[in-house]
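Review box. Two proteins, two foldings.
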Amino acid sequence: MAVKRSRAEKKISYDKKLCALLSDYSQILVVNSDNVGSNQLQNIRQGLRGDSVVLMGKNTMMKRSIRVLSQTTGNEAINNLIPLLVGNVGLIFTKGDLKEVREEVAKYKVGAPARVGLVAPVDVVVPPGNTGLDPSQTSFFQVLNIPTKINKGTVEIITPVELIKKGDKVGSSEAALLAKLGIRPFSYGLVAVSVYDNGSVFRPEVLDLTEDDLLGKFAAGVSMVTSMSLAVSYPTLAAAPHMFVNAYKNALSIAVVTEYSFPHAEQVKEFLKDPSKFAVALAPVAAAESAAVANDAAKVEEKEEVEEESDDDMVLNLFD
């Protein structure tokens, strides 16, 4: 027979468990648990068993335990969790990949009916088609301004209708109609709202960033630094190559219009004095490109001849 514990004993046990998890895990998903049932939560716990632990509780208890643990251990980073404990939330402690854990949790969403007073998390659209309801039920559709017609003794919706918009409260008429149509428009589960990783807190959308996204953002940042450095003439590692090239162009411009010269400007000045030398310098490059084009064309012709010969052989074999 299980021994019934007092409320104080339960609080002490919960505090020890939370403190132990905060000490052992450095990655935490803060999840919203609105409209999540106990059976659904149990299935999520079973699915995450191994590398992750789901802990629910009162926000006041969790905040107090975090403050006490921070003061005891001197770990002030965990205090960043306190502002996130707002509303009906829970904590998922994990040592695995945060993105994979979030995706695993999302698999356990279940469909739910539209109950009166609920705030719609998504738009609800009633599709056109036969409803299977008898003509006496047309009053529901008329109240909601849904165009219908009677087809073979049943009510048929003519066009798709946006019944409820995201963020609106579900009314009694909408709830009754959706129940009659057997439509369960909403789905609920644990939804990640924040991520805690070694003291840093960020939005869960960051987990969706790929290496290409990071490289693109890094390249955009380098480009902005380069532009700013060039605009204010402030040397940076990103702008240095452009500054050297611009300085070389300026020095070359001066050397071209004056008697001043330097080794890298001699060849340019020679080309300007005698443009035919420039044509001679480009001749080997043009010849190489022409040879490459001719070589490619010869390969294509040879391939076509081989294909034609194989086709001829096939035709002869058919009539041998």
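Next protein.
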Amino acid sequence: MDIVDEINQAHRELLDGERKVVTLRRRYDADSEDVWDACTNPERLSRWFPPVTGDLRPGGTYQIEGNAGGEILRCEPPRLLRISWLYGEDPGFSEVELRLSSEDGGTLFELRHTADVPPEMWSGYGPGAVGVGWDLAVLGLGLHLSGAPKVEEHTFHQTDEGRRFITASSQAWGRAYEAAGGSPGQVAATVAATTAFYAPEEEPS
């Protein structure tokens, strides 16, 4: 698998309204039940995603190690999962919806993240702030479903392959931002900031 080519397997969209909506779609060569199990079975989830704990049922809560937590709002196996996605002291509205559907013998995976984004965060980083993180998650899922080894999340950004992937992801979200009406100058600035956040240049020794 060419990890950077994984960027081209996905379609990205942005709705740039009062609430920001980022959508990521891609097809996997696996049936919906298998993809659903990989996304919701805690034992399998930990093979490609940070550990998730909590009362994992509709109305229950979850916590991702070192990241967001929230409530499980809807769960309709193997097609629909909707959760609140809360991070930080005052996160505002933030929900993630996952939809799976059969397509050409495989599964169409669609992830939609809708959120109130502070203006300073949006002007600084644009959609790549969450988009690159979701691209990394979708990469992890693809590797898991294909039987490939998990990337090391804490060091991936330090590898040449990781930096190329992150740069390509940030640029792809920049194109989605421009397609949604972002100005070229603003897009370029947010792409540069997002890339530097996810793959900072190493300090000279």
